[in-house]
Amino acid sequence: MRLVIARCSVDYAGRLSAHLPLAQRLLMVKGDGSLLVHSDGGSYKPLNWMSPPCTLETTLPDEAQAAAGVVEVWKVTHKKTADQLIVSIHEVLHDSSHELGIDPGLQKDGVEAHLQKLLAEQIELLGDGHRLVRREYMTAIGPVDILATDASGASVAVELKRRGDIDGVEQLTRYLELMNRDPLLAPVSGVFAAQEIKPQARTLAEDRGIRCVVLDYDAMRGLDDSDSRLF
């Protein structure tokens, strides 16, 4: 992983356009080829990013860019969509590379991991016609708990929690933003599933078009003969 702290501006060009004006930021180039742009605020969410498969090309600035103070230009191009993330670097304050090795992955607690397994086996609880694609679908920013398809064949990303709060909705939102850039998956809808969902989290999820599903853990394990499994 390469970590660069630099004064830079960032432009995203493709199906959407976005501009980050000149400021001091952290540029993270990961081993999978992805590039993430972070500020000192906003917690763990990047300001912008390019997910793999993509290529990173470093060039010298042209005359106009050099006159504006640019010393180096990073051009990151997505191989499938041709979207581009262009980073105009004015000053490099730190540049280091680190070998992190193979990550063992997030270890979920017993109930959450069992919920994932049970829902994968009972995927129809999400609705008639739903089919499991796979558990732990890997993205550039982490694994989505479950990737499924609905009755129409459209992709559905499911984030599972024991107790659903706003952080879980934010996590699923980031996955959806990334996955909907992949033409092989898009459009991808989201399902936020938990044993209990806090009212604020439900409000935020519904405002973002994410469906909320409350899971009855005992019923899914066959310990409750109630016909009501989802609400």
TrEMBL record:
Residues 2-104 form the Endonuclease NucS N-terminal PH-like domain. Keywords: Cytoplasm, DNA-binding, Endonuclease, Hydrolase, Nuclease. Residues 111-230 form the Endonuclease NucS C-terminal domain. Its main location: cytoplasm. GO terms for molecular function: endonuclease activity. InterPro entries: Endonuclease_NucS, NucS_C, NucS_N, NucS_N_sf, tRNA_endonuc-like_dom_sf. It is found in: Cytoplasm. Its EC number is 3.1.-.-. Cleaves both 3' and 5' ssDNA extremities of branched DNA structures. Belongs to the NucS endonuclease family. This is Endonuclease NucS. It comes from Agromyces allii. The lineage of its organism: Bacteria, Bacillati, Actinomycetota, Actinomycetes, Micrococcales. The gene is nucS.
